[in-house]
């Protein structure tokens, strides 16, 4: 027992420190999952902190500043979806080349991903920078919000490259198996953002008082410094992948493959995002208390799912690298082992949420009208956690194989054609009210897990080329 505990702690330290000698196509699968998943989980937590830090300090400036951040984040959701789609293509191709023991191919793929990032971020920066006030107006912002928040929105759009590249280059690191570097990038960027945010917002010391715009300045400096750190790691070759002068070229076939994978990946991400908007629209018909309760419950659930996203990303890397090494059976085994780990984790969390829903919700809100809805949402959705454990890993495994089309079709069916209509029927036609929406979420995600498992076991993803 003591020996096993010592080995576990040794593996945990290695996962955070990073290991360049570990071959994910040959070493024990359980250890490989651990070495990849732990830093990926921590990276996911760090990414979520950016938005929390901004709203924490901005809230001290009043409702107009908070509205600015909320409306801008809503518009940037589309950009996040594009970035996530690009990440799918970059990670899949880099992982495949890494598994093939082709470091030059991985480096060339990384360069093409960065070129695509430039192609996306430049027009977004120009458009958003020029039309920030009009975009806020289209989102329904008041004159006060437009007057006070245009600088923030303009700065966030103008600096969107820092968002794109922070996502994209970390995906390159993850595909290569350098999850610890991706984690440290987010630590570094977050530390700078946390330090600078109050300085630029409130004008502490020698810093100018920029109000809500200061939050955008601090965020872009933090993310931008993180991007510079990423590039230094790529150029100096401190990880598994190194970009040299001979790699700095346009490779049309690689770009074409990346666009093919990323294009459906972007649609896949947008499908999931827009389905939540559909559910909110249904809930809004039952009053603000139902929407508030749903918001609290879902935010707790999403936060609890963050470690599962890390494990899902680990499965994607293992699939890509093992397919590149010509080991499809090992790739499949890696996915099922990751599913099992995720099942244990989410099964435990789901049980705690079901048993302790009232106490957990009371930490976040004591509003007597919103609490019943929040408790119901948390409890009902948690009943599906054991299904989510498999669904999240399996859909990301398809992405890691470069088959983003399959999970995109699954998402279209399960969310647009099943979840949203089912939520409407249960809530309106059958009279379940908001509970019908909560049931639809659980049923849809459970359906996604079953459909994903059936298609994954057929094995068509093993034969795709990237």
Task: Give a written overview of the molecule.
The chain is mainly alpha-helical and 466 residues long. It has two domains: 25-250, no CATH class; 275-463, no CATH class. Helices cover 83% and strands 0% of the residues. It has helices at 2-17, 29-58, 63-99, 103-138, 143-158, 160-176, 179-202, 212-236, 252-284, 288-324, 328-355, 357-364, 371-382, 385-400, 405-429, 434-458. Helix 2 runs antiparallel to helix 8 (212-236). It is globular. The mean pLDDT is 90.
Spell out the blueprint of helices and strands.
Layout (H helix, E strand, L loop, with lengths): L1 H16 L11 H30 L4 H37 L3 H36 L4 H16 L1 H17 L2 H24 L9 H25 L15 H33 L3 H37 L3 H28 L1 H8 L6 H12 L2 H16 L4 H25 L4 H25 L8
Q: Can you describe this structure in just a few lines?
A:
83% of the residues lie in helices and 0% in strands.
């Amino acid at each position: 027992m003591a020996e096993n505990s010592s080995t576990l702690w040794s593996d945990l330290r290695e996962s955070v420190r990073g290991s360049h000698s570990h071959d994910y196509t040959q070493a024990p699968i359980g250890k490989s999952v651990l070495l990849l998943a732990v830093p990926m989980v921590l990276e996911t937590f760090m990414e979520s902190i950016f938005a929390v830090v901004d709203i924490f300090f901005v809230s001290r400036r009043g409702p107009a500043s908070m509205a600015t951040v909320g409306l801008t984040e809503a518009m940037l959701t589309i950009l996040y979806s594009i970035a996530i789609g690009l990440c799918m293509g970059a990670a899949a191709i880099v992982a495949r080349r890494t598994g093939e023991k082709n470091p030059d191919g991985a480096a060339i793929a990384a360069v093409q991903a960065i070129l695509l990032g430039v192609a996306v971020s430049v027009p977004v920066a120009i458009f958003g920078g020029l039309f920030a006030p009009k975009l806020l107006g289209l989102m329904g912002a008041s004159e006060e919000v437009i007057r006070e928040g245009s600088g923030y929105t303009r700065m966030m759009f103008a600096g969107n490259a820092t968002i794109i590249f922070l996502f994209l280059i970390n995906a390159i690191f993850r595909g290569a198996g350098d999850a610890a570097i991706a984690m440290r990038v987010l630590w570094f960027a977050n530390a700078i953002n946390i330090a600078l945010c109050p300085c630029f917002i409130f004008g502490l010391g020698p810093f100018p008082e920029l109000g809500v715009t200061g939050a955008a300045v601090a965020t872009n400096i933090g993310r931008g410094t993180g991007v510079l750190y990423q590039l230094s790691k790529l150029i100096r070759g401190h990880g598994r992948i190194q970009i040299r002068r001979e790699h700095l070229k346009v490779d049309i076939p690689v770009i074409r493959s990346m666009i093919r994978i990323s294009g459906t990946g972007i649609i896949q991400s947008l499908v999931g995002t827009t389905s939540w908007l559909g559910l909110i629209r249904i809930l809004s018909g039952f009053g603000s208390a139902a929407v508030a309760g749903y918001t609290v419950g879902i935010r707790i659930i999403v936060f609890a799912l963050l470690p599962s996203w890390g494990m899902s990303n680990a499965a994607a890397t293992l699939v890509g690298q093992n397919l590149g090494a010509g080991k499809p059976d090992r790739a499949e085994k890696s996915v099922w082992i990751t599913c099992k780990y995720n099942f244990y984790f989410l099964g435990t969390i789901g049980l705690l949420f079901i048993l302790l829903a009232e106490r957990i919700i009371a930490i976040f809100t004591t509003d007597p009208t919103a609490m019943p809805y929040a408790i119901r949402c948390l409890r009902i959705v948690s009943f599906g956690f054991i299904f989510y454990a498999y669904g999240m890993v399996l859909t990301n495994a398809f992405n890691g194989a470069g088959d983003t089309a399959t999970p995109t079709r699954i998402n279209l069916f399960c969310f647009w054609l099943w979840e949203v209509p089912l939520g409407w029927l249960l809530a309106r036609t059958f009279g379940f009210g908001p509970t019908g929406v909560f049931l639809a979420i659980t049923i849809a995600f459970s359906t996604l897990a079953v459909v994903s498992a059936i298609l994954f076991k057929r094995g068509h993803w093993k034969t795709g080329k990237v």
